[in-house]
Amino acid sequence: MHTLVANTSENGSLKQLGRTAESICEAKLIGITSKAFAAKHPIFFEGDAKSCVYRIEKGAIALYRMAIDGKRQVFDFGLPGDIVGLGAADAYSCTAQAIGAVRVQCIPLSSLNRLAAEDSGFALKLYQAVSSELEATRNLLMALARHNSLERVVIFLLTLSRRNALHGKNPSLLTLPMTRLDIGDLLGISIETVSRSLSKLRKFGMIDVIRTTTVQIIDLNGLNLLIGRATYH
Amino acid sequence: MHTLVANTSENGSLKQLGRTAESICEAKLIGITSKAFAAKHPIFFEGDAKSCVYRIEKGAIALYRMAIDGKRQVFDFGLPGDIVGLGAADAYSCTAQAIGAVRVQCIPLSSLNRLAAEDSGFALKLYQAVSSELEATRNLLMALARHNSLERVVIFLLTLSRRNALHGKNPSLLTLPMTRLDIGDLLGISIETVSRSLSKLRKFGMIDVIRTTTVQIIDLNGLNLLIGRATYH
DNA sequence: CGGAGGATTGACCGGTATCAATCACCGTGG
DNA sequence: CCACGGTGATTGATACCGGTCAATCCTCCG
Questions:
Q1: Gap from A206 CA to C26 C1', in Å?
Q2: Strands B207-211 and B61-66: what pairing?
Q3: Which of A211, B4, B39, B227 might form a disulfide with B139, Cβ 3.0–4.6 angstroms?
Q4: For residue B1, what pLDDT is reported?
């Protein structure tokens, strides 16, 4: 998973999990299959007995939980390379849903458990991976609890930008595969407020909304200043 | 760590970590020492090189992180029996500070790492423990993002109540070792709003604030209804 | 008894949710 | 190729929750 950037611990967890995810996949895991899901289809539901963990090959998914009153909290978006479904509980602790068309690798839990029981090094990799998720969740928590709606949207954009940079893509041209509702449910704000925030950033001349799914960052430094942090590092 | 209750995954993680914490302490760890801290003194700082994990014997601590603008986000309160400082990173990812006088066991990281490398079962225990912390953090995230201030305070009280029940103490008589500021910084609201929420619950006849540090729950069912959940289960 | 830190209560204001109307984009079918 | 319909996005008007400032109260200790 990735890490929202507006915090003091910087992007350590992102890189770290990236490496961890890779080593998990490089391990001698057997029975891995590949599977495709159409847009909006669930990969697994919160509460379901856990049978597999998944590695995103192509597309994007949303990880979320529903509150009793029907409100939805997105914890993260899973993008290619990410592993979702980790955690020691025997049931999935949140729902994973395809945003667009998605292809995933299914890693059987039995296979994962066997390897972890045999190889303490692999078990420690799982420990690392979940530690990173914990870190990312705390960062999101900081973003939600301590920033207003405009700042949250900026943090979201900068996070995507940083992800792009780490994948060798253009950090100033962002693709938003998710809807405004998905973004709002991640940031804890309404779709209208997401929209208003993007419009405000456009009027400030900091971004350009080319299409609803494509955002060009014009003034990266300005965005960083909005969340109280300069870019030079 | 404990788990805020207003969610669908129930209290699984709480019990689970309770057990995990115990088994971690029962393990053959060497070099454990005991240490005392006075009120408001730091146990460790965010960013410090990690040398030990700590088990609370007596008293209470706050786990928090500071935002750039000086705002503080409390992630959790550590109460007797809890283990704090876990996580695969080589630096503490948040600050731990004594609320009142505190006594802790210091478990050297070197000892922990050696055992984890030798014994995959112990490594998996660490995996479980951090998974539970992740779960608790997600629950807090749900509370912050999806509940108003009154509901957050109710969730906080019900969490303490459940903790009491699990420790064999009276679930209707709550001790609040932390200040209103600590509570507010956990729930993302101001001290005035914490105070107003408690007063409102008192006027509703649902609680009685005996002293500022002691709350009697009168109508547990009513509190549960406020957060959209009945008690009968 | 007095001082200090913490808690409570009130008044006011701003940010954001909500409701509502319109717009933009895109796939479908004529 | 264009008209049309549906979904999602944008923009505006309004109400209200909760932050902030300020005054007072409470409790614990010296």
A1: 28
A2: unpaired
A3: B4
A4: 57
Q: Which residues of B touch A126 (CB under 8 A)?
A: 124, 127
Q: Decide the pairing of beta strands B214-217 and A95-98.
A: unpaired
Parallel, antiparallel, or unpaired: how do β-strands A214-217 and A173-175 relate?
antiparallel
- Between CA B52 and CA B108 the distance in angstroms is 4
Distance CA(A195)–CA(A198), nearest Å, equals 5
Read off the pLDDT of each residue in B156-182 and give the average, rounded to a whole number.
Answer: 93
Q: In what order do the strands lie in the sheet with A72-78?
A: A42-44, A95-98, A61-66, A72-78
What dihedral angle (degrees, nearest 10) is formed by the CA atoms of B196, B149, A2, A88?
A: 100
pLDDT for the residue A25: 67
Report the DSSP pairing between strands A95-98 and A61-66. Answer: antiparallel
CA–CA separation, B63 and B97 (whole Å)? 7
Q: State residue A12's pLDDT score.
A: 32
Query: Are A85 and A76 spatial neighbours (Cβ–Cβ below 8 Å)?
Result: no
End-to-end Cα separation, chain A, in angstroms? 22
| pTM above threshold 0.90 | no
> Nearest by CB to B131, which of A75, A89, A118?
A89
pLDDT digits (tens, 9 = 90+) for B9-68: 333 333 334 446 666 766 677 889 999 998 889 999 999 999 999 999 989 999 999 988
Locate B217 and state its tokens: 């729950």
Closest chain A CA to residue B138: A137
Q: At A70, phi and psi to the nearest 5?
A: 95, -10
State the Cα angle at B179 between B59 and B130, rounded to 5°.
55
Q: Which of A161, A180, A212 is nearest to A99 (CA)?
A: A180
* Pick from A96, A121, A4: nearest CA to A42: A96
Q: So what's the pLDDT on residue B146? A: 83
Q: How far apart are CA B185 and CA B193, in angstroms?
A: 11
Question: Which residue stretches of chain A are H helix?
Answer: 12-26, 109-118, 120-146, 149-166, 180-187, 191-203, 220-226
**Across the interface, do A9 and B46 touch by the CB < 8 Å criterion?**
yes
- Profile chain A (233 residues) by mean pLDDT over runs of 10 residues: 48 40 70 90 94 92 88 90 91 92 93 91 91 92 90 95 91 94 95 97 95 94 82 43
Residue A101 has, within 13 A of its CA and on its CB side, a CA count of 1
- Classify residue A222 as left (phi > 0), alpha (psi -120 to 50) or beta: alpha
Residue type at B92?
Y
The pLDDT value recorded for residue A99 is 86
Structure token pair of residue A61: 């998914």
Average pLDDT of B180-209? 96
